[in-house]
Amino acid sequence: MRREAEACFQAAGIDYASPAEEKARRGDLMKSAPVAGEDRGGGSSWQSLVRGTGNIEADYLNGEIVMLGRQYGIPTPANLTLQRLANRLAAERGAPQSIPLQELLRQIDQT
Fold it and tell me: Less Cβ crowding at N or C end of the chain, within 10 Å?
């Protein structure tokens, strides 16, 4: 997904920070650390599925990459598949990690 996004950003002339640049920019402002007695399940999309609100931010994350890909002729099968699956899971109140990796990869290959 990241490679697709970077290819789209480059085609569109959008500057972006590499993971190393982002880490250097944040410095000590943001740190992840364990919380006693709690497991860190995932990021905001994971949290949306756990809360079962029926909403998820896939259209704003993966969907933007898909849109840029269409605009600039860059294939984005991973982002398109993730966008569709995330929206379906949210609408159906599905659980995070309920789609096996092999199934996800199969669907990406078919896109």
Answer: C
pLDDT value of position 31: 75
| Angle at the Cα of 36 from the Cα atoms of 20 and 39, rounded to 5 degrees | 65
The residues spanned by each domain of the chain are 1-22+56-111
Helix (H/G/I), strand (E/B), else coil: 40: coil
pLDDT of residue 57: 97
Structure tokens at 56: 């998820």
List phi, psi (to 5°) of 79. Answer: -65, -40
User: Which of 81, 49, 85, 54 lies closest to 65 in space, CA to CA?
Assistant: 81
- Tokens 């993966």 found at: 62
CA distance 3 to 22: 16
Do the Cβ atoms of 97 and 45 come closer than 8 Å? no
Which of helix, strand or coil describes residue 47?
A: helix
